[in-house]
Amino acid sequence: MAKYREIPCKYYLALGQCQKGRDACHKTYCQHCAKYIPRAKVHRINKKKLYNQRERGRIKDLSL
Asked: What's this model's pTM, rounded to 2 decimal places?
């Protein structure tokens, strides 16, 4: 099952409710809004990059 990775806007309350008076539909409009400010700065781990770094490390260790 896919993860929902979108970070809601600081002003987004619910579907159709925005404190800034905009048409609030988080999935499309709020992400591209000029007034968009994320609620929290969340560090997302890039799992593909982490996997590739581990694999490169294993290959380098084997070649030495």
From this structure: 0.50
